[in-house]
Fold this sequence. Notes:
By secondary structure, this protein is α/β, with parallel strands linked by helices. It contains eight helices and eight strands; from the N terminus they run E-E-E-H-E-H-E-H-E-H-H-H-E-H-E-H.
Amino acid sequence: MNTILDVPYGKDERQRFDVHQPDTANGAAILLIHGGGWWQGDKSKERVAARVFAGAGYVVATPNYRLADAQTRTNLYPTQVDDVSRALTALKQSDVVFDRDRIAVVGGSSGGNLAVEIGIRHSLPVVSWSGLIVLDAFMQRHQATPAHRINVDPTANSASIDQSGADAAYYKWLVMNLVGSTDAAEVSAATASHRITSRCRPMFLVNSTEELVPATEVSVMACALARSNVAAQTLLLPGARHAEGYLEDAIIPTLAFLATHLFANIPVALEKSPAS
């Protein structure tokens, strides 16, 4: 795998992406979005997952994006969506060799949320591992829950973060920090499940049953897709593992989903029957 670091797509130091090029390419690309609750995290933490996808033949682009801070009122929603969208455009306009019609978006945790957002905006296939998606319903259920930020080791890898199970106080803080308020209308505007249309491409939604993100969010999102006649594939895993914490269990069905929806329209040459 060959890696190109810090390709700029904007003026801010966070507006950079890395490109991981496979030794043997299959012609398709993945935009792999890091998590971190929209307030921390870095593209460098996606190198393990990037290597797995590159090993399967995909060009993998891992963008950084500006991080939300409600205290200073900077980079609130939809800054992150806009940044990753710009990174996608820059990737398409780059000299990196891949088929521009074969791109999928993959992300875990808040990266899963952004994968859904980008998939909706650009009509791309999506893989969301533990994406925080149904924000308004969560906030409605937890109006009395005090919000609380947890301390995160900035050097910890993605597979070791948020692996201790449900934490409504932290989830609530993440949403408040992203949106900048608890106003129902503003939170609803940041809730991706309300923007599903028939233009969306299929989505693979993965979650654990007892983790940070309620497993019910998968069914809500799948139902929203079904109402718009968009295919949804879901996978619920036992326990409290979150996002890349279950990479080993999710990667095979993820690769199968990507192969189905990125290569399904390749013409297949059928062997003709011998003339009778």
